[in-house]
Write a structure and sequence with these properties.
The complex is a heterotetramer, with two copies of chain A (about 150 residues) and two copies of chain B (about 90 residues).
Chain A: E1 2-7, H1 13-21, E2 29-36, E3 47-52, H2 56-72, E4 76-82, E5 84-87, E6 91-99, H3 102-119, E7 122-127, E8 133-135, H4 140-147
Parallel strand pairs in A: 1-4
Antiparallel strand pairs in A: 2-6, 3-5, 3-7, 4-6, 7-8
Helix pairs in contact in A: 2-3, 3-4
Chain B: E1 4-10, H1 12-18, E2 22-27, H2 34-42, H3 46-51, E3 59-62, E4 65-66, E5 78-82
Parallel strand pairs in B: 1-5
Antiparallel strand pairs in B: 1-2, 3-4, 3-5
Classes of the chains: A alpha+beta (about 150), B alpha+beta (about 90).
């Protein structure tokens, strides 16, 4: 029941929510996470460029989704990850998890995004206002977050 | 035996350092595990050496699954090298 | 920065997400929860009817939102709760929480929905296919969930 | 002193049992806390008695904030009685 997509185009959260839950009355709650390109005055970013390993990406997202569905008794989930150049403020990733009860929906949402961050083959480079580009380094905190589960 | 033909892929800054997104290589007899492959690739030239210079930052996938360096490869395998992932 | 609404009409998740985050580049993640009217073959529900204590509802939601914003360093949050008769499958409640980082956004989303469930003055009655109506009883598990925080 | 005028509200099944969504009452002298008010209201008639019969299921708000039964009310206060909330 998982929907997995890697795409350059923006996603429509309302449409994805509807696709996941419309007409499915056994759903009691849907958890959702939207990750966005962040830029702050201290660390200004004009855009992120996302590269991925086509083939492995879809496999790894499908595997993460299958684990989440089993572990949290999901009625379905959606993972959409964008690639290419995404200006500051743009959405990068959407995770949706539908479950009979809210706690499973919310826990599955956290599980999916934590695992995606540490095991799906995406890489970000940051463009800054001075025209420079640098690869984003992996964060120790992300590994710790994924290991909680 | 003449060695093992492999498809090698590089991503992110490893791709930039090697200067290639992919290459077909023939690993010589005696190079059987992913760890041995890393050593052999790193010794090819300065570009490869630079990509592999910090082993702590190199991740490996064998046929699109994460793999550890003691795993053995087979003819026709797809081996990918990349830095720690940063999606999400 | 909190948006609090109690309304009979459906809400538009995409529009609320945009209102919360458009043009705000310091946002890195938005957590979201949508609660829906659940009906299963074992416990069939044709509709829920939601009653609330107008005045106290808005105050209590604003207080919960303020606590969440402070505790999780939110850049903003949205709580929309519907009232009146809602057929099976309809959305009941929307919670959105925008933060610089994903863990705060997700934790705040859980915090908001857990506290809303135990301290905002809403009451549900269930209509069943046999034409009966019964008041939904409060769940012990909801109190436990709210006390975690 | 002639007693304290209060606005009383009832919700959900308490509203149904009392048969009223709200009523203005004058609490007599000697009835000063919310707990005393509950006892006095419950003694008014069978409808009120039925609404208050299980104290474990009665929640109280004073001027739109949750309050406990030992709290004292003042003239003009809004006091609401309702079962445990079930929103979300």
């Amino acid at each position: 029941m998982a929907t997995i997509r890697v795409q350059a185009e923006p996603f429509d959260v309302a449409r994805e929510l509807a696709a996941l839950s419309d007409g499915r009355h056994e759903v009691g709650g849907i958890g959702c996470f939207v990750g966005t390109v962040r830029s702050t005055p201290e660390r200004e970013v004009t855009a992120l460029t996302l590269e991925h390993y086509s083939g492995m990406t879809e496999r790894s997202l499908a595997a993460i989704a299958e684990r989440a569905e089993e572990r949290f008794g999901l009625l379905g989930c959606t993972v959409i990850h964008r690639v290419g150049r995404l200006p500051a403020g743009e959405a990068i990733v959407l995770v949706l998890a539908a479950a009979p009860h809210r706690q499973d929906a919310l826990d599955a949402t956290g599980f999916l995004i934590d695992w995606l961050k540490t095991s799906a083959p995406f890489w970000k480079s940051e463009s800054t206002p001075d025209g420079q580009t640098r690869w984003v380094e992996a964060r120790e905190a992300d590994d710790t977050a994924a290991r909680r589960w | 035996m003449d060695g093992t033909t492999l498809e090698i892929l590089y991503f992110a800054w490893m791709r930039q350092r090697v200067g290639l997104a992919s290459e077909r290589v023939v690993a010589p007899p005696g190079i059987a595990t992913l760890g041995e492959l890393v050593g052999w690739l790193a010794a090819r030239d300065a570009a490869h050496a630079s990509a592999f210079e910090n082993p702590r930052l190199v991740r490996v996938a064998l046929n699109q699954e994460f793999a550890s360096l003691n795993v053995r490869f087979a003819p026709g395998d797809e081996v990918a090298f990349f830095p720690p992932v940063t999606g999400g």
